[in-house]
Design brief:
With 295 residues, the protein is α/β, with parallel strands linked by helices. The protein has nine helices and ten strands. Helix 3 links the parallel strand 3 and strand 4. About 2% of the residues have low confidence.
């Protein structure tokens, strides 16, 4: 990141957070589906009560239906799963995928923290895992920003991102039910779909797929050197070759279809965030789609 976390957050607070404050709260379902987690006692069953909460052992002893009563836990724990792999370096200077991820992470940490929720972060690259425990303050959002800056400066290895390992790490960290927001381009290997399904069974999961033009289109520039951002493998190709362009497009479409199908089977909504898109507009659209899905 070109700017320090403090300067970046200050700019985002003026340009994005103020426009979104209050608009994203309530866009997610409650992490506990309304049942709470702290048992507080029993009361007699009444008309209109949910029969699923009947305590059948007490009902049998007292010969009268009784409900288990819980204290609703209104504090939400949010985990930001941040992909710091080499493929996230794609894009133009200052507006690459890793820049957009950093902005999204700071905005989400600040917005959820202002609502009284605790936000933690998991920064993942194959062979490297950094964790920022959940917190709420502005200083805490800056701590996440500092870790983002540190990982951006780290030397990248030549291994491909293991998406399954990243999602499994999130599952190990989030012990209590939480909202897990995965920010990634979802370019990588591993049986990530099974890992995502396991994560989604325990938590509410939302995927923000960060996409740059370079991910989807091959420029018509004659002979070019194509490099795999994650493995470092290079290949000289003729970008004007019609057959190559067709095959490239087919490969992109197949990749997108596999991703959409895997997310659908896991029951996880995936939202595309293009690097050239206005961040506030993209997040408002995410919130609107999430509300529509939950209603």
């Amino acid at each position: 990141m070109a700017a320090t976390p403090e300067k970046l957050l200050l700019r985002l607070e003026w340009k994005v957070v103020r426009r979104l404050d209050g608009r994203l709260q309530g866009a997610h379902r409650t992490a506990h589906r309304g049942s709470g987690i702290d048992f507080t006692g029993l009361r007699p069953y009444g008309d209109g009560d949910d029969a699923r909460h009947i305590d059948w052992n007490v009902t049998a002893r007292l010969d009268e239906p009784h409900l288990r009563v819980f204290t609703e836990d209104r504090e939400l724990t949010v985990w930001l799963v941040l992909d710091r792999s080499a493929s996230m370096l794609a894009g133009r200077p200052g507006r690459g995928k890793h820049d957009v991820l950093a902005e999204l992470a700071l905005v989400l940490a600040r917005l959820f923290g202002r609502g009284g929720n605790r936000v933690g972060a998991l920064l993942f690259d194959t062979g490297m895992l950094r964790v920022v425990p959940p917190g709420t303050s502005r200083r805490h959002a800056l701590r996440i920003g500092a870790e983002l800056e540190r990982t951006a400066a780290a030397t990248r290895g030549g291994t491909t991102t293991d998406l399954a390992e990243m999602l499994d790490a999130a599952g190990r960290l989030a012990r209590r039910r939480a909202l897990v927001v995965v920010l990634s381009d979802f370019i990588g290997d591993g049986d990530w779909e099974r890992s995502l399904q396991r994560l989604a069974r325990r938590h509410e999961v939302v995927a923000l797929r960060i996409v740059d033009t370079a991910d989807d289109a091959l420029p018509e520039a004659g002979l070019i050197v194509v490099e795999d951002a994650e493995t470092g493998e290079q290949l000289v190709v003729d970008s004007a070759d019609p057959l190559l362009r067709v095959r490239f497009r087919e490969a992109v479409d197949a990749r997108d279809a596999r991703l959409a199908a895997g997310m659908r089977r896991a029951g996880v909504p995936v939202h595309r965030v293009d690097t050239e898109r206005d961040l506030a507009e993209a997040l408002v659209e995410v919130a609107a789609r999430t509300r529509d899905r939950s209603s």
